[in-house]
Amino acid sequence: MVIESIDEGGDGDLATVQERHDKFGEILINGENIEALSFSQISKHIGYIPQSHVSSFPFTVFDVVLMGRAPYLNLTQSPRAEDEKIAIKSLKTLGIYDLKDKEYTNLSGGERQLVFLARVLTQQPDILILDEPTSHLDFGNQIKLLEIIDRLAEAGLSVIMSSHFPDHAFLSSTKVAIMKNKKLIDFGAPGDVVTEDNLKEAYYIDVKLIELDENRKVCVPMKTNLKLDL
């Protein structure tokens, strides 16, 4: 997980991966340079979920999820029965099969995120990249999505996720990077990296870490006693 703190404007850290790749090095997927791969080949390895996604057309949920099979089809080819089975499996895996025939544009923000995740799972990628996937979700849907992501990682999917919420590191990650304005503050296990000192450096406020159990802590920001000259 990448915990981001940005106070200079601009995009988050995941949005600058291509820019840094162009300047400083190369990206390899299973030993192959990404520059040598077609978009379809990359899409078979990497699934990407943006912060939010709203379709301009009233596709059904099933149609949106089935679009995940596009890397395996040519321009004139229609989805096969096998592709439809994979899409249905993704819907059932995430517990949203009952949404199959609903219009995607009529769903709540939490439902849309789950549908888009199902679409990405239908790609059958090795790597899942999520750009602040909980940023537009309510508290309950945040936890539900993080638990789903955690289960997917346990099933063997490599997950790279960004978040502005340091608590999320204890819910859904094995390695954490804290970054501020595109510069690395620390990297390692959540318990070693998400510390009061690192959070103060990232956010310029005092933060107390409260231990709930051996593997779980919560981050409590302290009031800054800000005074306004009104």
UniProtKB/TrEMBL annotation:
InterPro entries: ABC_transporter-like_ATP-bd, ABC_transporter-like_CS, Metal_Ion_Import_ABC, P-loop_NTPase. PANTHER family: IRON COMPOUNDS ABC TRANSPORTER, ATP-BINDING PROTEIN (PTHR42734:SF19), METAL TRANSPORT SYSTEM ATP-BINDING PROTEIN TM_0124-RELATED (PTHR42734). The keyword Nucleotide-binding applies. This is ABC transporter, ATP-binding protein. The keyword Transmembrane does not apply. GO terms for molecular function: ATP binding; ATP hydrolysis activity. It comes from Methanobrevibacter smithii DSM 2374. Residues 1-206 form the ABC transporter domain. It comes from the Archaea. Pfam families: ABC_tran. Keywords: ATP-binding, Nucleotide-binding, Transport.
